[in-house]
Amino acid sequence: MIVWLDTNTCSFPAIHTALKDPNGLLAAGGDLSSARLKEAYRQGIFPWYNQGEPILWWSPDPRCVLYPEQIHVSRSLRKRIRKKDYVVSFDTDFEAVVDACAEPRANGDGTWITRAMKGAYCELHKQGIAHSVEVRIDGELVGGLYGLAMGKMFFGESMFSRRTDASKIAFVHLVEQLKIWGYALIDCQVSNEHLKSLGAREIPRAEFKRYLNKYLDRDPGHRWELELETISFGESAP
Q: Measuring CA to CA, which residue among 37, 195, 190, 49 is closest to residue 110?
């Protein structure tokens, strides 16, 4: 049985009380205020719901994560990255990235990024918490992703591609930069084949919570407004 949230507070039930089926469903209702969203991520909870539904809050077990030092870059992706025909940047057009992530997918599925979701994350971007990665070719936005950075943790939300491998290029550049900045973990929420191909894995929710407790309040010690150099993989790299 899920809990309906009190709109007068930003508190959530303990994550271990989340349902096993559907996996991780914890609560419903509330709002998408910045205060509630920040509290949710601090507890290992995220919103995910369809247009017309009440807001649903999730904390699945296991949790899909990626350790930055364990990213897997395939031979073909390394070759694509070496072409250097693109520019990667952070936080140059957050709203456009969210809009692109909200577009219907090729498989015909609708979007879970509602107008209210977009407004909530754009507000977090204004507060310096939500960030985007953009990939451009000849000035055209062709891929990217967005998510939240809190302490030394990054919480991935969504990504898109308008050209082959564009979202993977964005993700690899993000991970390489997070390595430099000393981030401990990237939250990928729920596993899929795309994420697994990049090195993501599942860990118990309790272990994920330990990472939150240890790294959320670390000083990030960096700025996000960067235009990134193309990653240089040696020609002999596997």
A: 49
Give the Å distances, CA to CA, from 72 to 69, 121, 185. Answer: 9, 29, 15
Type of residue numbered 145? L
Measured CA to CA, the distance from residue 55 to residue 59 in angstroms comes to 14
Longest dimension (CA), the chain: 58
pTM metric for this prediction: 0.93
Contact present, 34 and 120 (Cβ < 8 Å): yes
Nearest CA to 37 among 128, 152, 120? 120
The predicted-structure confidence for 77-132, as pLDDT tens digits, reads as follows 999 999 989 999 999 999 999 999 999 876 545 468 999 999 999 999 999 999 99
Q: Give dist(CA 53, CA 82) in Å, integer.
A: 44
